[in-house]
Amino acid sequence: MLWATAGVAVLGLLVTLEVVARRRLGAPEPMGQQILEAVFAPKPGPLYGGLALMMVVLTWRQRFLAAGLAVGIDAVLLAVRWAVGVEVDDGSFFGSGALWVMLGYAIVAVTRRTGPERVLLLKGVGLGLLLVAGRKTGDTWLLITAKTRPLVLDPYLAAADHALGDPSWLVGRLVRATDPISTHLLGWVYAQLAVAAVVVALYQLRNVAAERRFPRHHLVRTFLVIGLLGPGIYMLFPVVGPVFAYGPGASGTGGVEWAVADLWPDALPSISAPHPVPYDGITPRNCMPSLHTAWSVAIFIHTRKSPRPMRFAGTFWLVATLAATLGFGYHYGTDLIAGVVFALTIEAALRSLDRGWDRAGIQFVAYGTVVFAALLVSYRCLPVEMGERPWVFGPLLLLVTASVIHGYLRLTRLWDPEAAPARRPEPQPELV
Question: Whole-angstrom Cα distance, residue 24 to residue 377?
Fold first, then answer.
């Protein structure tokens, strides 16, 4: 019932986005474009990552067969494109084969499987296709934020960010001073977040084929829910980021002509009465909360019970992602704090849903929700007060965030108590 409800909800969202993209935005429909990419050169994306997730339900022989078919189909399509002279962008050579194989296994599940085996295979296919669809729908959502929110609230966050010491300006200078090593490393980490998530998810789902069932909770669920709810907050609190609102822009969007002032990261903006400012109709309003932060926190959480190399990788990815979001000017420090609270609240809610809602779970989810809402309200209503009294509001922001982290740790320790060591039997006196 849960999977069916989720499927209907996702289908409704996809249909809505198709209609909005075509009739309101004049943009390519996300799913229509994805269908076309079954033949035409696909844009870079997680197509093979989706295939890898689908293959967790297959045997090793079936996995080799599926991977071979995907690569073979891509090789044939690449040869056909080359023969007819179709120009292909860099990074768009492969991916269609993975989509064909996932759709093929969906047909196999419906026509050749029955009972629990059909359900398991459909879950695997759905998991892979959700990852693929998430990328397309995410791009459409970002365009919707740019088209429907002409005014952005960056001056509010810039003022509130003084309470935290303007970390984006500080880290931005450090990244610039250590260029090109820092920019290449952090840029790669920032861009490959989805790859890191797939690696962690594959480790968590490694026993699905043998056990013939999915674990109750895993990283992909948290990732998808964060990606589903986050864009809704973008619409309520549209923000473009320091490099756009106070700098030259990035990734081909923005520009000094749209900036409040060309300051980032060399000079701090002054504290004055903030007001919404207009920005272009292309740059996504995707700062509040920082979903890169939320996703990297989810990766960190889901690697805590993994082997040491994966725990180290999860910690590295979290630290490097935080450094990248600030150092490239994509986010303010206030965004990162909101992202941490957002991720922990969603993670606790999903775990509570799986294990059954209890008093501790309800209280923490309610507390995280209230803290997140209070952060948004304070950024909107008290930015000047926060910026003018950093010795009060800076520690207060950090303390509130620490309280959410502490509450989550207490909750998980309550749910997953460490196994007590087995008592050794006391020596018994020998019988004479």
Answer: 30
Which pair of tokens denotes residue 317? 């990815």
3-state secondary structure of 341: helix
With contact defined as beta carbons under 8 Å apart, do 69 and 51 qualify?
A: no
Residue 321's region, left for phi above 0, alpha for psi from -120 to 50, else beta, is alpha
Cα 381 from chain centroid (whole Å) = 28
3-state class of 253 per DSSP?
strand
For 192-290, where are the alpha helices, taking DSSP H only?
Answer: 193-204, 208-211, 219-236, 242-245
Phi, psi dihedral angles at 203 (to 5 degrees): -65, -45
pLDDT at 420: 41
Give the contacts of 403 (CB within 8 A, at least 6 positions apart): 371
Contacts with 185 (C-beta within 8 Å, 6 or more apart), sequence order: 320
* Distance, CA of 273 to CA of 241 (rounded, Å): 18
Q: In terms of DSSP bridges, do strands 277-278 and 151-152 run parallel, antiparallel, or are they unpaired?
A: antiparallel
Query: Which residues in the chain come in under a pLDDT of 50?
Result: 419-422, 431-432
Q: Which of 343, 338, 351, 336 is nearest to 411 (CA)?
A: 351
Tokens 């892979």 — which residue?
128
Question: Which H/E stretch holds residue 114?
Answer: none
pLDDT at 208: 92
Q: Which residues make Cβ contacts (< 8 Å) with residue 375, sequence separation at least 6? A: 334, 337, 338, 341, 397, 400
DSSP per-residue codes, 402-416: HHHHHHHHHHHHHHS
Query: What does the block give as tokens for 116?
Result: 């629990």
How far, in Å, CA of 398 to CA of 383, rounded?
16
Q: What is d(CA 242, CA 173) in angstroms, rounded to the nearest whole number?
A: 13
Contact 241, 329 (CB under 8 A): yes
**pLDDT value for 298:** 96
User: Residue 142 has what pLDDT?
Assistant: 85
Evaluate whether 37 touches 99 at the Cβ level (below 8 Å): yes
pLDDT digits (tens, 9 = 90+) for 339-355: 999 999 999 999 998 88
Distance CA 258, CA 244 (A): 8
Task: Give me the residues paired with residue 152 across strands.
Answer: 277
In the chain, what is the straight-line distance between the N-terminal and C-terminal CA atoms, in Å?
65
The CA-based diameter of the chain, rounded to the nearest angstrom, is: 98
pTM for the model: 0.88
8: Cβ–Cβ under 8 A, 6 or more apart, which residues?
A: none
Running DSSP on this structure, what letter comes out for residue 328? T
Task: Please enumerate in sequence order all residues whose Cβ is within 8 A of that of 53, keeping only pairs 6 or more positions apart, or say none.
Answer: 124, 127, 128, 131, 198, 201, 202, 205, 220
Residue 330: both structure tokens together:
């994509």
